[in-house]
Amino acid sequence: MKLAARLWLLGAVVPALGMVAAALVAAELFRASLERALDDALMGQAAAEAVSLFDAPGGKPHLHMATSPLRGALTRFAPAAALYDATGTRILVFPEDAPPDLVDERLSPQGLGPEPRLATRRRAGHGGQDRVLTVGVTSQDGAPWALELSASLAGVHETVRTFRRAGFAMALLLGAALFLLQTFHARRLARRVNALTGHMAALREGNLEAVAPAAHGDDEIAALGRVVADATEKLRRAREAQDRLVADAAHELRTPLTLMRTSIDLALRRRREAPELVEALDETRREVDRLARLATRLLDLATAGRGAWDRTTGDLVQAAHEAAEAARAAAEAKGILVQVEGPEALPAAFDAAGLRQALDNLLSNAIRHGPRGRPVIIRLSRAGEVARIAVRDEGPGIAPGDRERVFQAFERGNGEAAGPDGAGLGLAIVAEIARGHGGRAYVADAGAGAEVVMEVPLDSGSLDSGAASQPLRSG
């Protein structure tokens, strides 16, 4: 069922039918209330007549309605009344011109007592209904009499019919108003939903340049529109980053491949002596190693981006000491001492292999950029529910304008050319690992030198929060 049909059904048809049903139920309750009021009026009139039927001089029976000074007004609303003697003969009737079928022609008082009887009677002449009350009365000399009061139900039924007509009319008017309102609302919602549908169809076809429809208001569709717009922008940036990564990777791969081909072509151009061939093969081997390192880095970046982490509780301080020990040989080659500062233990939930890779990249980056003879410091601390790992070197540092750019793959800080081991992927991998752990990585203001910080949550409950990573220096 389409949106418009659903809104018409639930917003117009169902409420209108509910109004009709409510009007029917209310009409029945109203009819019952009117009939109870009529019964009460008959009971009151019967009580008044029964106690004073024989209080005229000489004990002559009479109906007080017939002798009332308001007799002319009573005929418009007072019930018809009839009095019957012991033989069942009708002695008195009010009004005298009452229809013959409104009250009984004969009514025997035998079997009647002082307890009134109420009944609904259908007239034989025109099918109307009357409410009839009969009660037995005893005269002063002990003779039995019968009193009958009869009131037409035509007024009650007409009032109920008027009430029903008004209820039905109101239900129809309300239904028509709701139908118009839901039509307007359905068209407006349909336009918004169709705009989102068209945008999603464009995304499905790969058109990430499509502009998401503007989200106005604060309802659920507006919230969905904002989420779709945000997702579209992120997809656009992701594709741009992917395209840039592919182009940069192709550029990085082309350089060693070109050098390898040149070396091979020169070796094949003329007969070479064995030493020359060995030199050409050594040069080709170096380029092959460079390609292998680049392929490994690209694979590490792809693995970090997938974030398939096996998080278990471990000690970050111990992991830092192990990484420092592994980097000792490279650090001693430059006369650098790697120091670990912080608490004796810092338990957290992390993927051991992923975190070790991040620490190795941070230390490799710091050792490569740090000056000879100056220390590299790993400082661990706790900030609320977050563990902070900072790696600081005393090298040239990172310019504030480079802190966002160098996070991208194949970007290098300070404009230096890549060394034999530098492909511009190391700190990009660190950022992906931090983000995969629900934390972040960023460059801190350190004055002289550079300080790269990686934060991860201490407990596993917040590991999937997806905190955004800030740009880093890549090396």
Question: How large is the radius of gyration?
Answer: 50 Å
Strand pairing plus helix content: what structural class?
alpha+beta
Q: Report the sheet with the most strands, covering strand number, pairing sense and barrel closure.
A: 5 strands, antiparallel
Distance between the termini: 57 Å
- What is the helical fraction, as a range of percent? 40-55%
Given as residue ranges, the uncertain stretches (5+ residues, pLDDT < 50) are 415-421, 461-475
Spell out the helices and strands N to C: HHHEEEEEHHHEHHEEHEEHEE
Using the alpha-carbon principal axes, give the shape.
rod-shaped
Figure out the total of helices: 10
Report the portion of residues in β strands.
Answer: 15-25%
Strand order of the largest sheet: 2-1-5-4-3
Mean pLDDT: 80
Q: Number of DSSP strands?
A: 12
Write out key terms for the chains shown.
about 475 residues, alpha+beta, five-stranded mixed sheet, 10 helices, rod-shaped, disordered C terminus
Question: How would you portray this structure in words?
Answer:
By secondary structure, the chain is an alpha+beta fold. Helices cover 50% and strands 16% of the residues. The protein is built from ten helices and twelve strands. It has a five-stranded antiparallel sheet with strand order 2-1-5-4-3. A five-stranded mixed sheet has the order 7-9-10-12-11. Strand 1 and strand 2 (90-94) form a beta hairpin. The longest helix is centred in the middle third of the chain and has 51 residues, at 154-204. The radius of gyration is 50 Å and the shape is rod-shaped.
